[in-house]
UniProtKB/TrEMBL annotation:
Function comment: Central component in molecular interactions underlying sperm crawling. Forms an extensive filament system that extends from sperm villipoda, along the leading edge of the pseudopod.
Gene behind this protein: Cni-F58A3.4
Domain MSP: 9-138
Protein name listed in UniProt: Major sperm protein
Organism (species): Caenorhabditis nigoni
Pfam families: Motile_Sperm
InterPro entries attached to this UniProt entry: Ig-like_fold (IPR013783), MSP_dom (IPR000535), PapD-like_sf (IPR008962), Sperm-specific_class_P (IPR051774)
Signal peptide as annotated in the record: none
Length: 138
């Protein structure tokens, strides 16, 4: 199944990112608005010393997608998380939409840094590749 019931409004893939501790690395994720309303998105991280994310705020129109780039600097092995906070909005800027956090929902992306990770290519965010992988697993 490509979408879980909880993914209808905001679909995020992949939900886990692995990083080598010695070199750090980058991971790309895709956020897709599956609702019929504009969604404001705010990204928070459990360790801003090791991680940088882009964008921090964004607006997603219905049916549109946005890439999320996560970069990790070299550091100790540990598990962190990205919290994706989102809500429907009529605001013209995502930052303005979060002046009040009422009605916001959350999703989590796990960030796992281990010494034995050798992956140097970020996971795909190409929708055709994601759909092909989903069909192959079924």
């Amino acid at each position: 199944m490509l979408y879980d019931f909880d993914d209808h409004n905001l679909f995020i893939t992949p939900k886990i990112a692995y990083f080598p501790t010695a070199m750090g690395g980058a991971s790309r994720h895709m956020m897709v608005n599956g609702s019929s309303h504009r969604i404001a998105v705010k990204i928070k991280c459990s360790d801003n010393e090791l991680f940088r994310v882009s964008p921090v705020y964004t607006l997603l129109e219905p049916g549109n997608a946005q890439r999320l780039q996560i970069v990790r600097d070299p550091g100790p092995p540990k598990t962190d998380k990205i919290v994706v906070i989102y809500k429907t909005t009529c605001a013209s800027s995502a930052r303005d939409a979060f002046e009040c956090d009422l009605g916001a929902e959350r999703k989590v992306i796990a960030l796992i840094a281990k010494e034995d990770v050798t992956m140097s290519i970020a996971p795909t965010t190409n929708l055709k590749s994601i759909l092909r992988q989903s069909v192959q697993k079924s």
